[in-house]
Specification:
Blueprint lengths: L1 H13 L1 H30 L10 E7 L12 H10 L3 E15 L5 E9 L3 H5 L5 E2 L14 E4 L1 H8 L9 E4 L2 E8 L16 E4 L19 E6 L5 H18 L8 E6 H6 L3 H32 L1 H9 L4 H37 L14 H26 L4 H7 L8 H36 L10 E7 L6 H20 L6 E6 L10 E6 L3 E2 L11 E7 L3 H4 L4 E4 L13 E5 H7 L9 E4 L2 E9 L14 E5 L7 E7 L8 H11 L12 H44 L1 H9 L4 H30 L15 H27 L3 H7 L1
Parallel strand pairs: 3-8, 5-7, 15-20, 17-19
Antiparallel strand pairs: 1-9, 1-10, 2-3, 2-9, 4-7, 5-8, 6-7, 11-21, 12-15, 12-21, 13-14, 13-15, 13-18, 16-19, 17-20, 18-19
Length: 813
């Protein structure tokens, strides 16, 4: 084997052109595969980083009466579940939270946190590296001011000091006792870019423990660890029966609500299954094209080495020895390609992470680690063996008499060998067609998405959230909120580079935040429709300052916008969008109409254009813009338009805000509306980019395969072409012969690939936007591009054949 290895390396070094083409082709295929596999493995395939993670489950409350059946539940229901359940060692609850603090630079900031029940860490079987976890006593309201630090937070804020236990941390201007520090490899949600920095007890108020309260908050995520011997189906049945019993006991609480138990891994990443399989399928096609190219190169090389194999056989080499030697050569090529491919993948992973949606589960775990390296190497060895075995078997059966008689004459492949090489080229072209069709569909889908008019100009808009701290008296905070917001608005308006500024409550467009309110029409009663159709009879309510609509460049259709005269004590007025005007006053003029929102009546003074508040993929909804001066609030979003990059004025905006209130916290998350738009389209942009790159890669490799085969055919038939030209054939006839053969191979591949792509098109329907998976234009473009590329790849070998000198060709042998 060592002798074969040395011999293979020596032979490959003697044929640098063949070696370079084979290694580069494999490097591109294996590199792309390794990079994509690292994403799929980290996000979807890898188990959760918890002890016996397959015993962890999410318990979801499914309520048909809720418009957003997200699976979260109320504190009241969770406490009953925890007390009555019999399937879990522990049933833990968690909810996201933010706390005001000062960052490591001393600036006001906020920290992503999780409020967790005392069972949370035992359920996940996580022990702190310092201190303790929470106890049942920590859930008692008033004695719950304990905090556990994540490892990263401990290092950044306290420099890893081990005497941190017992110290205090100022959160929301109150001292919290530090009781623990978590391990470095722990994060929740697991490996997320938004993992919690702090963990605090989920303490329950008397209002949260009573079902007599009018309001209810579905904000708790519930997880559990199965007891020994309890299976998923048993737990589901038991929890569902418990939910039914609670429904019977409290019939007016959440009628019809039930519980569903799903594996925690499935709950976190199950929605990614189709997307991840799509990526794996696409990169598998590229790798198959690269492997087919390797097989074709090896077949061509085997034909040219027939004399060499015959000499070795004549000197006593067995057929098994010849096969082994050729397989070793194939594996060496594959490993060399894998080595370069892994280097390419290492840089490619960083690019992929930058392109991926920021809220993708476990995105922080994406890396070229030992597991990914093992798969890449195993793939290379398998590739070398599987796609080298047929050329090796064929090359190990030389015709001794014919091969030795040929002497120095050029070798000519057998008819079977030629057919095999042609079949491989056809397969390459067919696979490339499938890839190009997929790339075209995703490119067309993204183009259609970006042509959607959101109804306003989201570019060059900076946003920050400001508000007065809540001190227990909500009405007092609302009274302070109005003047405070006006102070902040005036401060940022004076910042150089800010063209206009405004304030809004109820959520900025594209941020995923909104406030929905029921609507009545005075004199007409409550609008018809109940239950899940309640959105037809409600509006997105926003209180805005004068200039907000102008700052976002939302067009005014009729009437007027809100101005300085719309203040407290004057008639309540509202500006509605066209969707609301059509819904509530069809065939009438909305100006001057009366509308009730949350029990308060307003006069419509203007109608503005519709905007796609939740992004380009969601249709416009009814919206109502109220005067901020007439709707006091504890906090507002400031939105500022700048002539250029809004991030350039962010430091000056922060300084202006802190000049008014040095304790005002400012989130470090997305601060431009263009950034929020990027988040909304990130997955579609990623799909387009990846499928486009893979399609281009497949096209290049397939073209290289066509070129290689035709170049070999020309070299193989040089003597034949010389004879034909000596007998009167013109260069044009020779050129046509070569191009016709190439055209036949490309046409066969295009026909097969087009048929396969058409049959598979329905599998990508869920990933497309406003384009049919059988779009004729996309198919025609893919076929046209590949056909043109195939012919161009054949032109150089064909021209070489047409320039053959008859006498030199006849003298060649």
């Amino acid at each position: 084997m060592l002798h074969d290895l040395v011999y293979s390396i020596r032979m490959l070094a003697k044929n640098p052109a063949f070696t370079l083409v084979a290694v580069v082709t494999l490097a591109l295929g294996i590199g792309a595969g390794t990079a994509i596999f690292s994403v799929v493995d980290a996000v979807f395939l890898r188990g959760l980083p918890f002890d016996e993670h397959d015993r962890l489950a999410a318990v979801l409350e499914e309520d048909p009466q809720r418009f957003f059946p997200s699976g979260s539940t109320t504190a009241q229901t969770y406490l009953d579940w925890r007390r009555e359940q019999k399937s879990f060692e522990g049933l833990a609850a968690a909810e996201g939270a933010r706390f005001r603090l000062r960052n490591e630079r001393g600036e006001p900031d906020d920290a992503w946190s999780q409020r967790v029940s005392w069972e949370f860490f035992p359920t996940l079987r996580v022990m702190p590296v310092l201190g303790r976890t929470f106890t049942p006593e920590d859930e008692i309201w008033g004695g719950h001011k304990q905090v556990i630090l994540s490892y990263g937070f401990w290092q950044r804020y306290f420099g890893g000091a081990r005497d941190v236990i017992g110290a205090t941390l100022q959160l929301n201007e109150e001292p919290w006792e530090i009781v623990g520090v978590l391990p470095q490899d722990f994060s929740y949600p697991a490996a997320s870019d938004l993992s919690a920095q702090l963990f605090v007890p989920l303490a329950f108020t008397s209002r949260q423990t009573s079902r007599e309260t009018a309001g209810r908050n579905y904000n708790l995520a519930v997880i559990g660890r199965f007891k020994p011997g309890v299976a998923l189906g048993q737990a589901h049945q038991q929890m569902n029966a418990l939910a039914a019993a609670l429904d019977a006991q409290y019939p007016t609480w959440s009628p019809g609500a039930r519980a569903r138990v799903v594996p925690l891994h499935e709950h976190w990443v199950g929605r990614m299954r189709g997307w991840m399989l799509l990526l794996l399928g696409a990169v598998a096609l590229v790798q198959l094209i690269a492997c087919a190219n390797l097989a074709n190169l090896m077949l061509a090389r085997a034909a040219t080495r027939a004399r060499e194999m015959a000499v070795r056989a004549a000197l006593g080499a067995s057929r098994g020895r010849l096969i082994r030697s050729l397989l070793v050569e194939s594996v060496v090529l594959a490993l060399a390609g894998a080595g370069i491919g892994i280097v390419l993948a290492h840089d490619g992973v960083e690019v992929l992470r930058a392109w991926l949606p920021p809220n993708l589960p476990r995105v922080a775990a994406i890396a070229i680690d030992l597991r990914v390296l093992s798969v890449a190497i195993a793939t290379a060895v398998t590739t070398g063996i599987i796609f080298g075995i047929v050329p090796a078997i064929q090359g190990s059966r030389p015709n001794l008499v014919e091969s030795l008689k040929q002497g120095s004459r050029s070798a000519t492949a057998s008819a079977a060998g030629q057919r095999l090489r042609n079949a491989v080229v056809v397969a390459e072209v067919a696979l490339a067609v499938v890839l190009l069709v997929g790339a075209g569909l995703f490119l067309g889908s993204f183009a259609r998405l970006m042509r959607i008019d959101p109804g306003f100009d989201y570019r060059n808009l900076l946003t920050v959230n400001v508000g007065v701290p809540f001190r227990g008296d909500f009405e007092e905070a609302r009274a302070r909120g109005g003047p405070y917001a006006q102070q902040m608005l005036e401060a940022v308006s004076r910042v150089p580079g800010v063209e206009s500024a405004a304030a809004v409550t109820g959520g900025l467009p594209l941020t995923g935040s909104w406030a929905r309110s029921p609507v009545t029409l005075p004199g007409k009663g409550k609008l018809a429709g109940e239950g899940r159709d309640w959105t037809d009879n409600s509006v997105d309510k926003r209180a805005v300052s004068p200039g907000y609509l102008e700052t976002l460049r939302i067009p005014l259709r009729r009437g007027r916008t809100l101005n300085q005269h719309d203040r407290a004590g004057t008639e309540p007025v509202v500006v509605v969008n066209e969707a609301a005007a059509r819904r509530y006053w069809p065939g009438e003029d909305a100006i001057g109409q009366r509308i009730g929102i949350d029990g308060k009546e307003y006069t419509v003074v203007g109608v503005v254009g519709d905007i796609r508040h939740l992004g380009p993929e969601t249709p416009p909804r009814q919206e109502a813009y109220l005067a901020l001066a007439q709707e006091p609030s504890t906090g507002v979003n400031l939105v500022m338009r700048t002539p250029g990059d809004p991030l350039k004025v962010l430091p000056a905006v922060k300084a202006a805000i802190w000049a008014v209130n040095s304790e005002q916290r400012l989130t470090s998350q997305t601060v431009t509306l263009e950034g929020y738009m990027d988040r909304l389209i990130a997955q579609r942009r990623f799909n387009m980019a990846i499928l486009g790159l893979l399609g281009a890669l497949g096209l290049v490799i397939a073209a290289a395969g066509i070129y290689g085969v035709m170049a070999y055919v020309v070299a193989e038939r040089t003597n034949e072409f010389g004879v034909r030209m000596a007998l009167g054939a013109t260069p044009g006839i020779i050129l046509g012969m070569v191009l016709r053969r190439a055209s036949a191979l490309v046409a066969a591949g295009v026909a097969i690939g087009g048929t396969v792509a058409w049959s598979l098109s329905a599998t990508v329907r869920a990933f497309l936007f406003q384009i049919e998976p059988t779009d004729a234009g996309v198919f025609a473009a893919a076929v046209g591009v590949l056909a043109l590329t195939g012919l161009l790849a054949s032109v150089a070998p064909a021209r070489r054949a047409a320039r053959v000198e008859p006498m030199q060709a006849l003298r060649h042998d």
